[in-house]
Design goal:
Distance between the termini: 26 Å
Strand order of the largest sheet: 1-2-6-5
Structural class: alpha/beta
Shape: elongated
Number of domains: 1
Largest sheet: 4 strands, mixed
Number of strands: 6
Strand content: 25-35%
């Protein structure tokens, strides 16, 4: 089965901490499913873009055998209510 997961804060493979969606995709992959993820390009721990994403609208990465499409998202998420709202909308529109 092909599974598409849309999650704005899907963690990078080198980010520490719990991540239920990362774990779910790993389990689905072990069950033989083909997984694709659409995620934002902001690191939710630092609220910054990594250098590899600056100036790019969409980036495709292979993360442990999972296709992860990183879309451009506003870095103003933690600034204010309007910044958070713009962060959500920028992910939806990208």
């Amino acid at each position: 089965m092909k599974i598409l997961l849309i999650h704005q804060y899907f963690k990078e493979e080198d980010v520490t901490g719990g991540a239920r969606f990362n774990e779910m995709t790993r389990i689905w992959q072990e069950m033989g499913h083909e997984i694709s993820v659409i995620a934002g390009n902001i690191d939710n721990q630092s609220s910054k873009k990594r250098n590899e994403y600056i100036g790019k609208f969409v980036t495709l990465k292979n993360q442990n055998g999972i296709s992860v499409w990183r879309c451009s998202v506003s870095e103003h998420y933690n600034i204010s209510y309007w910044g958070r709202l713009w962060g959500y909308f920028s992910f939806v529109f990208s």
